[in-house]
Amino acid sequence: MLTVNTDVGHSLKREGIMRRSLLAPIVLAGVVAFCEFPTDAAQGNAPNRPSATRTSTRPSPKDRFVGTWKLVDTEQRNARGELVPPASAASGNPNRTGYIIYDPTGYMAVSIMPVGRTKYVGAQPTDDEAKAAITGYAAYFGTFSVNEAEGIVTHHLQGSLNPGMAPDQKRFFEFSGKRLSLKPPRASNGNQSRLTWERIPDLPNPTAEHRRFFGFFKLVSNERRNEKGELVLT
User: 14-49+58-232 maps to which CATH number?
Assistant: First the structure.
C-alpha cells in the first residue's frame, strides 16, 4: 500500500511545510510523464523512433503495464479475508483519486490524493493548512521491473514524497480486462490493501506535436524571473 509519513512536527517552519505541500501535486517536481500505449501505427509515425522487429505476437510482461491508469477502488482486508473499514483521512473523507503511469522505456510514476481537499483561505497557507494539504497524499517516481513467474511488479524509487519509504516497493499484480489490481505484501497485523486501476484510453489520433511530449522528462533546472527578466532568488 502506498504510505505517507503524516507525523509532521508542529515545530516545522511554515515555509518548509508549504514547500512540501506544493511539491506533491506535481509528483515532487522531479519527473513529468507523458505516456501512450505503443501501437504499430504510433511507433511508425513517431519521429526519430526506430521501428521494432516483432518476434512474437504475445506482449512482454512489461508491455501489459505500459500506459496510464486511473484509481477506481481501494480496499483493505485482514488475514481472514474480511473487509477492514478505511481509516478516515484528516479531511474526514477516506476516498482517493489518482493516476499511475508506466512508460515503455521502464519508468513509472504514481500520485494519489484524498478527494475534496480544502482550499487555502488566503494566498499563502497557514501551518495547519499546509500540513492538511499533504496528509493522505502519496507520490513517488522511479523505474519498474516485472517478475511474471511470481506475479510481482517492483517499483524502484528514485524520489518520493515520503522520505521513509523503502527503495523497492513490491506489488502483487493481476490483470482483468481493462483493470489492474496491485497489492503490497501483508502488513505485520495480517492486513493487505488492494488498489484497483483502470486503463485510460489513448488519444485516437495523436499529432506530431503530441508525440514530441511522449516519454519521461527529468527536472534539470528550475528558476523564477520577475517582469523585468531578472532572476529571483528563492
Answer: 2.40.128.10
